[in-house]
């Protein structure tokens, strides 16, 4: 690559780091890429590190030694995430979101890239200190959230299916009790999708009682995997008891009143 002025190099290096979260990048990579001395690259990284921390974009950590380099970890301050979630709560309380049966319409939120990015970044911050190999979710509404989180954690995504598919080969299937309607349902995961003894982070869009998440935990036991964390975008507070104890929620749904057209949504336990 041709030699760039420092201002241009800083822009390009910042973009390079943002698109490679949690990846160890040797200083020689930047030195060769920009045809610059390592001392100059170190000065550039110090500037980028300062801006990342001041603007709440994340942390830029330096690892010394021959095998060292720099690693960018996206991490948004909790107060910034709170403001974002509070704005979403206001949107989710709009009366026109009430569906027949007292359900809450959220599909438009799950379809907005800017919202998904912020949610994914928040989950990545919440579970930043945990050792995770893979993100898991169940089809279908949790898939966008899982991929958004995986983008900021630089991890693969595994999707649990409602039924096994021929195109995915042999699979492990279990029956579980749906927490909302107490029905027996089935979920399936291809054997090739997850290595045994993997460390898994479960991400889902909504948790009523927690039957689906509890089912995923039982399914993971068949793979001798360990659950390193559970993140849900919204939890229902109408349930008397949750089947899952240790989880992070970004929003809480306290109730949907079809008669008065009132919806009560507040920030979740992550902000307690």
Automatic annotation (TrEMBL):
Which UniProt keywords are present, listed alphabetically? DNA-binding, Transcription, Transcription regulation
Q: Name one Pfam family in it.
A: PuR_N
Phosphoribosyltransferase domain location, by residue?
118-246
* Gene Ontology molecular functions: DNA binding
The UniProt entry, under SUPFAM superfamilies, shows: PRTase-like, Winged helix' DNA-binding domain
- Top-rank taxon of the source lineage equals Bacteria
User: What InterPro entries does its record include?
Assistant: PRTase-like, PRTase_dom, Pur/Pyrimidine_PRTase, PuR_N, PurR_Bsub, WH-like_DNA-bd_sf, WH_DNA-bd_sf
List, for all copies, the residue spans of the domain called Bacterial purine repressor N-terminal. Answer: 5-74
Biological process according to GO: negative regulation of DNA-templated transcription; negative regulation of purine nucleobase metabolic process
Per UniProt, subunit arrangement is: Homodimer.
Which family does the record claim for this protein?
Belongs to the purine/pyrimidine phosphoribosyltransferase family. PurR subfamily.
The protein depicted here goes by the name Pur operon repressor
């Amino acid at each position: 690559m041709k030699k760039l002025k420092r201002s241009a190099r800083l822009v390009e290096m910042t973009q390079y780091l943002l698109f490679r979260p949690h990846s160890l990048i040797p200083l020689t990579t930047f030195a060769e890429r920009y045809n610059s001395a390592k001392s100059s690259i170190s000065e550039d990284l110090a500037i980028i590190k300062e801006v990342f921390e001041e603007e709440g974009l994340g942390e830029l950590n330096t690892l010394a030694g021959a095998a060292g380099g720099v690693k960018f970890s996206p991490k948004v301050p909790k107060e910034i995430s709170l403001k974002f979630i509070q704005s979403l709560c206001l949107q989710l309380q709009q009366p026109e979101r009430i569906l027949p049966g007292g359900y809450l319409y959220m599909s438009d939120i799950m379809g907005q890239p800017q919202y998904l990015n912020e949610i994914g970044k928040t989950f990545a911050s919440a579970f930043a200190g945990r050792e995770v190999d893979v993100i898991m979710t169940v089809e279908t509404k949790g898939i966008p959230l899982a991929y958004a989180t995986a983008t900021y954690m630089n991890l693969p995504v595994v999707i649990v299916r409602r039924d096994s598919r021929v195109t995915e080969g042999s699979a492990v299937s279990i029956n579980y009790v749906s927490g909302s309607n107490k029905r027996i349902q089935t979920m399936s995961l291809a054997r090739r999708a997850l290595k045994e003894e993997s460390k898994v982070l479960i991400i889902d869009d909504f948790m009523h009682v927690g039957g689906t998440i509890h089912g995923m935990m039982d399914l993971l036991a068949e793979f001798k995997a360990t659950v390193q964390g559970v993140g849900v975008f919204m939890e229902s507070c109408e349930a008397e008891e949750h089947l899952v104890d240790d989880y992070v929620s970004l929003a809480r749904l306290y109730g949907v009143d079809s008669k008065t057209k009132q919806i009560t949504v507040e920030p979740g336990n992550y902000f307690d």
